[in-house]
Amino acid sequence: MSGITVHYFDIYGRADVIRMILHYAGAAFEDHKIQFQEWPQLKGSGFAEFSQLPIVDVDGHRLAQTQSISRYLCNKFGYGAAEGEETYWTESLCDLCEDIGSTITPLAFNKDFEGLSKVFTEKVPEWLRIIEARLDKNNGGSGYFVGNHPTRADFHVFAVLHNIIEKFHPETLEGHNKLRQWKVRFLNSSRTLKTFLETREPRDF
Ligand SMILES: N[C@@H](CCC(=O)N[C@@H](CS)C(=O)NCC(=O)O)C(=O)O
C-alpha cells in the first residue's frame, strides 16, 4: 500500500499541522474526514493503536500520536532539525505549541467563551512574547525559527497562529510585527499550503 492518508475528524484540531506539513511539501495525500458519530465503532474496531486520532497511513505503516507523526513527516520531507542544540530549540517550541493547543482547543470545542477570553488575557500574551523572542534569536527573525530551513517548529507555530490565535483573538498579535511578518513570509513560501488554506471549507476549530 503506497501513499499517504490522514484520518481525523472533520475539524482542524490536532491533524491540521500534519495537513499543513503535507501541503507545504506538495505531497499528495487523502484527507479522510471521520464524522463524530462514526468514531465509536471505528475506535472499537482496533483501527487506532492508541484509540485516538489523528492516524496517518504512510506507505503501509500506520502512525499515531501527533508529535511523532509530525516528526516522522518532517524528517521524511527534509524539514528535520539538525542534531544537537537545534533539536532542542525545535522540540521545545513544539512542546509549547502543544501546551497552547491543549489549553485553548477544548475551550473552543466546548464553546467556553469566558474561559477563552481569560486565557487570551492571562496566558497568550506571554506565550507570544516567548515565541517571538525565539524567532528573533535566530538571525534576528528574518528567516525560520531554527537554523536556515523550515523545521517542524515553523509548522507548529504556524498552525497555532493561524488556527487559534488569529481565529479567536487576532488583536493579541498586534505589536508582534516580526511574528506577523514571519507568518506571511512562511505562507508565501509554499503555494500549495497557501492554496489549501485559502480554498478549504472553514471549520470552527
Ligand atoms: N496524544 C494524542 C492525543 C490525541 C487526542 O486527544 N485525540 C482526540 C482528538 S484531538 C481523540 O481522538 N478523541 C476521541 C477519543 O479519545 O475517543 C495525540 O497527540 O495525537
Automatic annotation (TrEMBL):
It comes from the Eukaryota. InterPro entries: Glutathione-S-Trfase_C-like, Glutathione-S-Trfase_C_sf, Glutathione_S-Trfase, Glutathione_S-Trfase_N, GST_C, GST_superfamily, Thioredoxin-like_sf. GO terms for biological process: glutathione metabolic process. One of its GO terms (molecular function) is glutathione transferase activity. SUPFAM superfamilies: GST C-terminal domain-like, Thioredoxin-like. PANTHER family: GLUTATHIONE S-TRANSFERASE (PTHR11571:SF150). It comes from Blepharisma stoltei. Residues 83-205 form the GST C-terminal domain. PROSITE patterns: GST_CTER (PS50405), GST_NTER (PS50404). Pfam families: GST_C_3 (PF14497), GST_N (PF02798). Residues 2-81 form the GST N-terminal domain. This is Glutathione S-transferase.
